[in-house]
Specification:
By secondary structure, the chain is an alpha+beta fold. It has a single domain, classed as Immunoglobulin-like (Sandwich), CATH 2.60.40. It is 22% helix and 42% strand. The chain has two helices and nine strands; from the N terminus they run αββββββββαβ. The strands form two sheets. Strands 3-9-8-5-6 form a five-stranded mixed beta sheet. Strands 2-1-4-7 form a four-stranded mixed beta sheet, with no helix packed on it. A hairpin with a 2-residue loop joins strand 5 and strand 6. The longest helix is centred in the N-terminal third of the chain and has 19 residues.
Length: 114
């Protein structure tokens, strides 16, 4: 009987821990200031963005009002964001200097939360 209780307890803890794990989204800032994010859609909840800056200048990544720490050239940064409501979230660069350099070109894209 005790073995059965331990097994059930372990299964519940493992199931709960895996449900609470944050999703991971990979973002890449390219030298032409295009930003790609993969996957393109996620379930609502906590998301860890791993951001790779392939440009020669430092940049910030922004989504839903949250902005990453400065990511140096050819480095990887990370930020955690809660995207709790289903919808379309726009991401962009958080540094105004980069945005002014591209003029009328839209920098960024969208991420769908189902």
């Amino acid at each position: 009987m005790i073995d059965a209780v331990i097994v059930v307890t372990v299964l519940i803890v493992v199931q709960f821990a895996s449900a609470a794990s944050p999703a991971v989204a990979n973002a890449v800032i390219w030298p032409n200031l295009t930003i790609t994010v993969s996957p393109k859609s996620l379930e609502p909840g906590t998301v860890v963005f791993k951001i790779k800056n392939r440009d020669l200048r430092s940049h910030w990544f922004s989504i839903d009002g949250a902005t990453s720490p400065k990511i140096k050239p050819h480095s990887i940064g990370a930020m955690t964001v809660k995207l709790t409501k289903p919808g379309i979230y726009f991401f962009t660069l958080g540094d105004p200097d980069a945005l002014s350099e591209v003029g009328t070109k839209q920098v960024g894209g969208t991420l769908r939360v189902r």
